[in-house]
User: Fold these one by one.
Assistant:
Number 1:
Amino acid sequence: MPQRRRDDETAVTAEYAFFLAETRGLRFALDYLDNCRIPREILLRVIDQPERRRRIERRRFPRND
C-alpha cells in the first residue's frame, strides 16, 4: 500500500507545516513544504479558508495501523 503510506506522510507533513506557520512564520513553513516536495497549496488553502481545515478523521472507523 505505497499510496496510503504516501498520503499519511503528506498529512503529517502538512500538519507540521501548519504548526510551523503558526510558530515560526508562513515563509518558514512554505520553505519546509518545498524541501519535502509537498505542494504549497495545501498550506495556503488552510490559511485562506480555516473553516475547511479537517479537524477530525473523515473515516467512520479509525484505521488500525
Number 2:
Amino acid sequence: MTRANRARSHRSKKKRLTLALAPVVALAVAVPLMNSAGAATPSEVSADCAADSDKLENCEFVDVQVKRDNLGPNQRVSAVTDNCGSTGTASKTFNVSASVTRTIQLEDGFTAAADTKLGNSFFEIGVKFNTSEINITRDDKTTTLAFSRTDTVQGDSLGFFMWSAKRTDVSGFLRATYKEEQNGQKVFFSPGEGSTGVHVFYPQILKNGTPDGRLWLRNVKCGTPEASGIQNSTRALRAEPGFGAGGENVTDVEIPLAEVPAP
C-alpha cells in the first residue's frame, strides 16, 4: 500500500469514530436536562391544593389581575308561564329564586372550604378586594335572591325571569409549598408562576344584602324554535342567551334591582 493510501485510510477511520460517538454525547446531555424538571406538575399541584393534601406545607392563591362587575352565567330563575294561544296579555305571579356563592375555576363548582389552606387564602384575597363601595362574598357561604312578583306576559308567549349575577373576577395562580423536597425544590406553581389561569369569582352584594346583577323578564313567542327548546327541555338548568341576545322571537325587559324587596 502506498503512503497516500495509508493516509486516506487513517483519516476515514477517524471520521467514522467521531460520527459514532455523536449520539452518545447527545444522550449524556439530555439526561441532566430531564432530571432538572420539577417533580410536581401543574395538574398535580392543583389536585393537591384542592384536596388539602397532607403533603403540603401550604397552598395559596396569588392574585395577578382583577375585573369588577363581571357578569356570570345566564340563568332561568322562575318557572315558565304559558300564555300560548292567547291573543291578549296575561298578568302572572312569578316566584323568583337565585343564589350566588364564591366559585373557583379549578373544577366545576369548586368552592374551597374555609378550614383548608387554599380556602383561607381565597378569603384573605377577598378581604383585599372588598371595599365600602363594593361588598363581595369572600367565603363559600351562599347568598340568596328570592321574591314573588306580578308581571305581564305577552300574548301567545312564554314568560319567565332570567338572572345574571354580578361578580368580581380575580385571576392568578396557585403557589404550593411541599413539606418534602422533590428533586431539590419545595415550591411549585399551577398553572405557572405569573399566570392568570386560575379564576376566583366573588359575587357582589348590594347594601341590602341581596346579590347584585342583572334581572329581566323574558317573553318568547310560542311556536318558534326558541319556545320549543324551552318546552321540550328536560334539564333544570340549560344554556340561555344573555340579555337582548335572544333574537327576534325573544323580548327582554330589565327589572331594576331597586324594585326587588330586601330579604
Number 3:
Amino acid sequence: MAEACVKPPRSPAPRSAGPNILGTAYGVVLCVMLSVIALQTAILPASVWQGDEYDYFANIREHGLAFLSDRLLHWSPRPFSEIVIFAYGTLANAVHKPLAWIFLALTWLFCAAIAFVPFLRRSAAPIPMRLLIAVSLAAIFMLGHPSADLFYWPMGTIAHLPVLAAACGLILLKISNTLSLRAEALLLTLALASSEAGVFFGMLWLGMRGFESLGGRRTFPLGRSRWLLLPTGIGLCVFTVMIFNHRMGGSGFPFTPTHGHIRASLAAAFRPFLKTLFALQPDEMSSGSLFTRKALASGVVLKAILTGAFTALFMVCGIRPALRTLMAPALALSGTMYLTIAAAFYAFGFLCCQRHETFRLDFSILLVLLLAAGLSTILSAKFRISSDDRKRETTLQICALAGLLLFAGWTMRWRLSDLSLALAGLPLEEAAHDRVWASGLSAGTEMTYTQGTASPAFYYWRWEPGTYHVGGSGWEVQSAMRYFGKTTLHVLPPASLPPLPAVP
C-alpha cells in the first residue's frame, strides 16, 4: 500500500556486459538534461517586471498589510503565493532594486526541492536512475512549449510553479509507492494555497481520496488520515473565497458566448482539453490561438517517445505501482486541465494566457508519467522482467536513454534560436534594466523606459514605444509611472541583435 510507505525490493544498479559503456551513456544523457536546465537558468538575469509588479509593489508601499488582505479576500485567494510576493515586494521597495532574477532563482530551487527531493530520498530505484528521472523531468518541463510566462515572470512563477512542483512530487511518490499521508497532506496544502489551478487539483485529489476511503474502509488508514484534514480545511476555505470572489465574474473583459456562462464554458473546454492531451506547441499561445495540426502531430510522436522511454526506465528500476492506485491521480490531473480551460473561457471569454497553456502542457507530461508507470506494471508482469535477465535489462536501458535524448534534441531544436538570442543579448538586457531603474529613481517627473531584446525565451510582452503621460493609455505604463512617481514616461523600442541563422 502506498499509504504504508512499503518500498518495493531495491533493483540493482544499471549493469550490462559493458558497464563502462552503459554508465557513460547514462552520464551523457544526464549531462544533456543538465545542459538544458543550465541554459534556461543562464538567462534568468534577463527577467523583468511587468505592469503587475509595478502596480502591486506600489500598493504595498502605499497600503501595506491592508493591501495584502484585500488581495486575499477580494482578488486572489492564494495564501502562499500572495504572502511570498508581498514579502518580495516589500524587500524590493526597501532596497530600491528589482531583484527579479534572484527571486526567480530561489523560487526555482524551492520548487525543485518540493518536486524531486522526497522522491530522490525515498525511492528504492538505483541512485543513477533516480537522478536521471528527476533531472529529465525538470528539463522536460521547460521544453515543448513557450516557458517565459511560467518560469521568468515573478508574479506568474510564484503562483503556478509551486502547483506544478507539488503535483510532480505527489506523482513521483505515488508511482514509486513511497507516498506517506504526511507528505501527501503537505504537498496538497502547497498546491491549494498557491493558485486557483492548485485549488482545482487539490480538491479533485482529495475528492478521489474520499471515494477511496468509502470503498476500502478495511485498507484505508482512517486513524492516520487525520493528516488530510489540513489540506481539506484549507482547500474548503480557499475554494469558498474563490467562488465569491468578484474576479470570477470576469468583469472588464469583452463578451463572448462563453464569458460568464458556466455551461457554455464547460462545453467549450472539451476540444481544447483533448488537444492539450496530445499536443506540444512551440509557438506563442497567449492570445488564445489554437493548436495547429503540426503541434498535434509532433505532440503525439513526442509524447509516445517519452512514454516509451519512461516505461523502459521504470521497468528496469522496479517502479511498478498497482494500477488501481493510478486512477485517482490521473483523474485529478485531467480534471485540473479541463477545469482551467473552462475557467479561462468563463472568466476571459478565450484561452488566456501563456502560463496557463504551459501549466496544462506540463500536467500532460505528468499524465505521460502515470501512463508509463502503468505500462511498466503490465509489461513487467507479462514478460516476467527480472533482475537476472541482463540482456533484456540492458536493451530497456538503451531504449530509455535513446528516447530521452530524442525528446530533448527535438524540442531543443524548437527552443535553441530563442535561447541563443537571449544569451547573446544578456549584456543588452542587463544594461537596459540598469537604465530603467536609474531613470526611474532619478530626480524630476520624466523617465525613460529602455527595453531589452525581448527574446521569446524569457519575455513576450513588449511595451509599445512612445511617450506616455499620467492618466493616459497603457495600464502597464501607468503602473510604472506610479511606482517611480513620474508623470511622463518615454518607452524606447526593444534593442535589436543581428538575426541568427535559421535552425535547419
Number 4:
Amino acid sequence: MKFDFTATSAIKVLPPGFKYISQDNFYIANLNNQDTTPPINYLFSDSATSCIIVIVEGKDKDNNPLVAMAHLSRKERFLAFFEKVSTSFYGKTSVFAQGANPANAPASIENALTLISWVNENKQNKATQQWFIEQVSLSVGQGNPQEDDRGCFGINLSNMTVSNQRFLMTDLERDPSGGSQTLFCVFGLKVEPQVILPEAGSSFTQAQLNLLVAKAHSEQWTDILYMTKDEVLNKYSSTPQYEAPWFFSSLRDSALYVKNFQQ
C-alpha cells in the first residue's frame, strides 16, 4: 500500500470498475471474490469537509485480500464501520484517511479524535488481537477542503495506491435515486430504527424511505425549494464556506424527492 499525492486535474471519464462511496456508506471488496462485471477496480469518494474518508487494507481469515472504505460523518457511523472492520479483517492492516477540514470546525475535531482514538487502540501492540494496524497514514485537519483536493480520496485496486485524485461526477452519479441518499445522511440517525451505515450501492427499504420522508416533512425539508443557495448553506451546513459546489443541488434534489414521494 502506498499513498500518491497528486495535483493533476480532475479525470472526466470514470474508469471501468469505478465504484463511488457516498457519504455515510461503506464497502468491503474481497479482491479474490468479486461478483461484479467488470470487477471493481477503483473505490472513490468526495465532498468530504468535516467528514473523514477511511480506507483499510488487509486480509480476511481465509487469506483473501480485502479493502474496506467508508465516508463517515458522525460518531455512530464511525463506530459502525469500526465494527465491520473488526469482524472482517484478520492479521495486519493498513489504514489511510483524509478529511476533517477545516480543522477548527467542532465536527472536524470530534471526527478526527474518534478516528485517532481507534487507530491508537488497535496499533500493533496486542499480540492476542484478531487484527491490528501495522501501517497508518492520516491526512486530517489540513485546511480548506476545496484546495489540493482534500475532499477527495480513493484507492486504485489494480496497484493498491491510495490518492486524492479527483473525478468529475454528476449529481445523478453520486445519488442515482435522485435524493434519498442525501435524505438518509441528514435524517438516518433521527428515525427509529436508525439507518446508520448502508453498503454503497444498496437500496433503502420502503419502510426506511417512509421513515426518512416523514421525518423530513416534520422538519419542513421542502422549504429548501424556496430558499437561496446562501440560505441553504448557512442553515444546513456546519462549514458553509467550505462545502463542495454540488452541496446545494444535492439538498435541493432531496427536498424535491420528499415533495414528490409516494408510498
